[in-house]
Amino acid sequence: MNTKIRVAEHLPFEEIEMRYRKAKDGLERGRWQVIWLIAQGISAQHVADMTGYCYTWVRTLVQRYNQDGPRAMSDGRHENLGGQYLLSAEQQQQLQETLQQDPPDGGLWSGPKVALWIEQHTGRKVHAQRGWEYLRRLGFRPRVLRPRHVKSNPQEQAVFKKN
Hints:
Number of strands: 0
Oligomer: single chain
């Protein structure tokens, strides 16, 4: 644990310090600080104590820097654009047009019905929640049929409304 670890000479010491001091992102600043302190010859355990990182993480950061250079210090989550949509743009357009019509089994469109439609058009098993998400993404709101009593009489109700 007391072995000195060294920083590869990807950048001069002054450049490492400048990147540490000018970093706008907090995670990146902390990573540059670790490299800067190790480059000064401070032991990894002492750097861990000073920065609040654990000893293993300090070693990992230095190994990443030595292997990949300065680009290893950036927060990779910023470049992560996320996954692709389940439906392509044209499939979403097709779903939008389909939602303008009544569903095949009647009633109203719901999450499970949209999920079934997606399943039929993509061949991928889709949870009902994904159907609700696509309904919301396409601007639809959940609708529920107005409840009707089993023994209700529409003619009597019409007469009642007139009075």
